[in-house]
Design a protein that fits this description.
154 residues, Dna Ligase, domain 1, 3-stranded mixed β-sheet, two-stranded antiparallel ribbon
Length: 154
């Protein structure tokens, strides 16, 4: 078996994962979960582009519905970077944060600063029980930084 195929999500495992989250297993749900595992930090439109050939007759709205069901079941995490459509990922349950490049929009996961949820405490919790904190670090990725320094030099 090739390395590429061994790293791809196994359909039976995807089905078990969906079932374990309390959702009914369907071909569109399996396809969407597979796409998200292959393309983390994807918008619904990007997921749709990935699965539309496999699922003839599907729609962007159907993908949105699947992503909403997955998010509600705790199978997928929704991430809302400023100035971008909602993005979805399969890494859940660990309160990690994101590094976002302001030039090329590259996104990388970064573990929680302290390592426990929540890693930030508000100055006033207004009676809320804090379950998680969402932090986005904005900056320039290494590649864009290299391009910037090259552009600055005549």
């Amino acid at each position: 078996m090739s390395t590429a195929s061994s790293s791809l999500p196994d359909t039976d495992l995807l089905r078990q994962t969906i079932r374990a989250s309390g959702l009914k297993v369907t071909a569109p749900r399996v396809a969407v979960l597979r796409a998200l595992q292959r393309l983390p930090h994807s918008s619904a439109e990007r997921v749709f582009d990935r699965v539309k050939d496999e699922l003839a007759g599907t729609s962007t709205q159907a993908v949105y519905g699947i992503l909403a069901a997955f998010t509600g079941a705790g199978l997928v995490r929704r991430f809302d970077p400023p100035g971008s459509p909602a993005l979805f990922e399969c890494r859940v349950g660990d309160n990690h944060h994101h590094l976002v490049c302001i030039r090329c929009s590259a996104i990388r996961d970064v573990d929680c600063v302290i390592g426990e949820a929540p890693c930030l405490e508000p100055s006033d919790d207004a009676g809320f029980v804090i379950l998680s904190a969402e932090v986005t670090f904005n900056g320039l990725c290494e590649q864009c930084r290299t391009i910037s320094s090259t552009d600055d030099n005549p």
